[in-house]
# Entry
Amino acid sequence: MAAASHSGAAELGNIAVQQGDLDTAIARYERAQEIADQADDEAITWRILARNNQAYHRLLRGEVDAAATIISEAMVLAEERGMLSLQPYLLSTAGEVALAQNDLEMASARFQQGLALATQLNIPERVAGITANVGLVALRRGETTCAVHYLSSALAQADTLGARHLAALIRIWLAPLLPPAEARAILAEAQEIAEVGGRRRLLAAIKEVRARMVEEVMAHGRSD
# Structure
């Protein structure tokens, strides 16, 4: 019963995310966590996943410290209960939190741990997602060629898997690193995916990247 109640609350959270409503999504993930916590170890998987979902989406809302606290709780629970299969998801989120904290060493360590486990446990979607995260760390280090390599590899994997949200997200990250014609083409692909899925946050991110690219072109024009 707890699992069904939790999954219902979590699914409502997922729907809110797709609609771009982070506040509602987080409230629903909090509710999912409350339901799972009441069931204690009967719903240990849901207790962990609810925290992971909440941490990730709080991070998207800019609540970095809250996200760090919540993902730490999830990792402790997973370690105590030996939930190895959940670790790639938790390590991915923990790495993104570290990246938001500008702790590139910790972010890299989390992502490399997560990538190794996702590969070992054969979780292809997380292999693709964390490979993209490794590319973001390279980008933050100023290693653009390396970033393009990892992001392109992750994109090929996501496309093969049909992981459309992830594939669109990687295109958004990759576009500013490509020549203008390629960037426009890859953003058009991302927009098509986002529009079909009604993913408002992706559409907003695409608009932002396009605006940034126009600004850069104009800045180069002024300097020539």
Residues 200-223 form the longest helix (24 residues).
